[in-house]
Amino acid sequence: MDSVLFTHIRPHDLLVVDGRIADPSTRPENTVIVDGGGALALPAPVDAHIHPDKTTWGQPWLSRTPARTLRDLIEGDVKARAGMTASVAERAGALMDSAVARGTRAWRAHVDVAPEYGLANVHGVREAAEARRHLLDVQIVAFPQLGLLTSPGTAELMERALDEGADVIGGLDPLGIDGDLHGHLDVLFGLAERTGAPLDIHLHDGGEQGLAQVREIARRAGGTRVTISHAFCLADARELDDLLAQAGVALTTCALGADPVLPVGPLTAAGVLLAAGSDGVRDPWTPFGDGDMIARAHLLAYRTDARTDEELAACYAVAAHGGAELLGLERVDLKAGDPADFVLVPAASVAEAVVDRPTPLFVVRGGAVIARDGRLLERSP
User: What InterPro entries does this protein's entry cite (predicted)?
Assistant: First the structure.
């Protein structure tokens, strides 16, 4: 990823015409001038992995139960959500508003699909997204949180979800959860072949078990757009970097707690597309998270021991450019012709912004200022 934008900064004007960056040497008549006060302009970041159907954002505090395993977390999630009174649309929408006010341009939202839920979560997140389509681009992943093969009927619901608001097919630990690598992947790649939808597969499994699944996913990728989320097994394993790059398999990382974090430098140097996300935000899994992707770039830098300006800038590039590419959005380099989707932050450099995690002074989408000082300016289209 090119870091010239972030490491060679000079004061200049930004001109926006019809929602795109334009050559500032000519100024059309009736130009509206917004004083940026010398703030730093950065491409708006993308949250490439978030679970908004689970969030309690804007709701009373939720106390969480102890959990030692992934299964414990899943079961605790089901129990906690049964007691939630606010709708998915209300909770997800509140989190969307907060994320947009902090500069987020787009989401890839993983939304639980299972016989226990039907497609209610997909419908709720899509409802919230449609109400904010002028503020945020949202891709929905139909995610088999309760298991794909071990929860009969889930595969059929996931295919239906693609007709009712979902855009991407999700998977989850073919071995660790379903105990059947080839059976799980047969279903996922079969759905992808029939529908043309991309795949995004959670992979928490570590060690050789995790690496074996990565190899098989890469082998099957072919012309299918595939993302592996988390991929903890790859944190210290570089032998598969070239394989992933050649197969076109993308990765997302969330820089979570004590979990392994994917190394930015080696993966991007090998040509692997790497994006970042929030994962859970104030949900039954975790009390942490806020949907702020500038803060998430900070966590990614901290967890990967970024020190130089270039290393810090590379972490922001993962959040901005990596996320945009993963979601199929146009890249924003703040050059003439680019979409006018950017933030203005009080920092002298991107390195300083990543470390300080400032609240954007302005959030600009399609050339319109939609938030100031961490607050949305309006909600209607």
Answer: Amidohydro_3, Metal-dep_hydrolase_composite, Metal_Hydrolase, Metallo-hydrolase_Enzymes
C-alpha atoms less than 13 angstroms from C-alpha of 34 in its C-beta half-sphere: 16
- Tell me how far CA of residue 372 lies from CA of 58, 95, 285, 359, in angstroms: 20, 17, 31, 9
Sign of CA dihedral 169, 174, 180, 186: positive
Give 320-377 as a 3 state SS string.
HHHHHHHCCCCCCCCCCCCECCEEEECCCCHHHHHHHCCCCCEEEECCEEEEECCEEC
Indicate the helix (H) or strand (E) that contains 242: helix 241-247
Evaluate whether 271 touches 245 at the Cβ level (below 8 Å): yes
* SS3 state at 157: helix
Q: Two tokens at 139?
A: 């891709």
Report the predicted TM-score, pTM, of the whole model to 2 decimal places: 0.95
Could you report the per-residue pLDDT of 191-222, keeping only the tens digit for each? Answer: 999 999 999 999 999 999 999 999 999 999 99
